[in-house]
Amino acid sequence: MPTKESDDAKVKLGGRFHRLFCATLVSAIGTGMHAAALPLLALQSTSSPMALSFVVMAAEIPWVLLSLHAGVVVDRLDRRRVMMWADLGRFAVLVGLTVLILTATAQVNLLWLVVAAFLLGVGQVFFDLAAQSAIPDFVSRDPRNLATANGRIVAAESNGEDFVGPPVGSALFGVWNFLPFAGNALSFAASGLLILSIRTDAKPKETSEGPRKSVRSEIVEGIRWLFGNRTLRALATVSCLGNVAATAQFAMLALLAKEVLGLPDFGFGLLLAATAVGATVGGLAAAAGSKRFGPGAVMLAGKAGVGLAILVLGLVANAWVAAAMMILTGALMTAEKVVVSTLRQQIVPDELLGRVLSASRLVVMAGGPVGAALGGVLATLFAVQVSYVAAGVLLILVALVFYPVLNNRALASATDEPAG
């Protein structure tokens, strides 16, 4: 009997899920290349902290503008095709940016980078919502299976975006500044083809006999589900505040690496890679950690631990200490993300998952532009380290304030809680 059960789990985490995993990894590697290269390209034109924050804000704003409508699209259409078209769109954007870089006679126009970051962010909204909503299509809703699947997907994203992609992107940038963007375009093309090859047993998404609901009413249904469930509401709020701190940290990381730590361009990529070393461990260990210590303990300890690590980044100007803190940050943030994703997939019905996820992401990602702007303002008015100290203190306070709502005991009945 145990053998049969484990065989079933292997089937559910293999085949179609494995192709989704490979597509995610390939796409993430390219994304990591341009994540490291975009700030470096911006720094060729300006050293202004606010200019860097504009580029980061442009990538985050689509979540605020489009996520609710994207959730409706994800619930109405074949989620695989949504991912494929998102990849195709991002491929086109990066081809265009590559051509602009190659044909530029002087410095690269900052406006190009802002527009490209915005369009890439639009593609990421649709891809991420569809990919996250598609996981239960390939894996049973058993908490252990969902946690393992989420952990592997998050580990693939982190390895690609933070471990493999950034060092390769920054190294290629040093050779020729268009190369990371051309490489990213190819990665999106490969990811789209992998997703297209996934077969599905799911029946076409047709509304039953009555007239289809309006987009507005479907959006409202997802929002009501999110805010009517106390656990989902708390998770979204905590994640939003966490995103304010995380984005403030990331927006100023290139500046911290160059001006405070004295690292070359390649060193900035290695700092991002250090995050992925921890994220790999956090993603793969999250399921076991959640089972042993409880999801609430993993989430709250992770939030406070990330706050402490960011605080140290603002207080200690040492490259080795910074790398250690980035490893710790990656591990804890990834474990948190796996726990939150698993809880959400357990609580929300499949037909509502895209809309509830999009409403949650809207709340969470609204913190991104705020964090990027605050990071830029604090670095401009005071010093780049001040933005790190402020972000670290914020996260520690968040963990303390939300302990009564998100401890293990409070989460024990989360899957039985009805929507309001």
Description:
The structure is a single chain. The protein is mainly α. It has one domain: Up-down Bundle (Growth Hormone, Chain: A), CATH 1.20.1250.20. 84% of the residues lie in helices and 0% in strands. It is built from 18 helices and no strands. It has helices spanning 2-12, 16-45, 49-76, 79-103, 110-138, 143-175, 179-196, 215-228, 230-251, 253-260, 265-293, 295-315, 319-347, 350-365, 367-381, 384-401, 403-406, 408-411. Helix 2 packs antiparallel against helix 5, helix 2 (16-45) runs antiparallel to helix 7 and helix 6 packs antiparallel against helix 13 (319-347). The radius of gyration is 21 Å and the shape is globular. The two termini are 40 Å apart. Residues 1-12 have low confidence and may be disordered.
Q: Percent of residues in helical segments?
A: over 70%
Look at the helices and sheets and give the structural class: mainly alpha
Q: Return the CATH architecture.
A: Up-down Bundle
Indicate how many domains the architecture comprises.
1
CATH class: Mainly Alpha
Mean pLDDT: 80
Q: Examine the coordinates and then state which fold CATH places here, giving the name of the CATH topology.
A: Growth Hormone, Chain: A
How would you spell out the order of helices and strands?
HHHHHHHHHHHHHHHHHH
Number of strands: 0
How much strand content do the residues show? Answer: under 5%
**Span between N and C termini?**
40 Å
- Gyration radius over CA: 21 Å
What does the overall shape look like? globular
Assembly classification: single chain
